[in-house]
Amino acid sequence: xxxxxxxxxxxxxxxxxxxxxxxxxxxxxxxxxxxxxxxxxxxxxxxxxxxxxxxxxxxxxxxxxxxxxxxxxxxxxxxxxxxxxxxxxxxxxxxxxxxxxxxxxxxxxxxxxxxxxxxxxxxxxxxxxxx
Length: 131
Prior knowledge:
This protein is mostly beta strands. It has strands at about 5, 10, 20-25, 35-40, 45-50, 55-60, 65-70, 75-80, 90-100, 105, 110, 120, 125-130.
């Protein structure tokens, strides 16, 4: 089994919405921190949001308010709701898991969303926003 598999990407018009899903399996099921990232050609991969097993959320400032991360531990699934999309949101979206707790900030009790602290990555799902 592939540890992380994203789905739900597609093409939408500006102002539209999408719900991305990520199925976890094997070593990623029990990860304390799961997160969503995105990348456009020529740019570094950037963190969007993360969530702990008990539901504590962290968002990048630009993602707060339009993007919502959620996790269904019973179904071993991670989700990202994308609302009010703009062409600038066009990117490949990745889910990622931290198996070594490097992403977990014990002082603040939440996960960080740095690419360097996540060990497993999905293959990505393309989101295209255009009219």
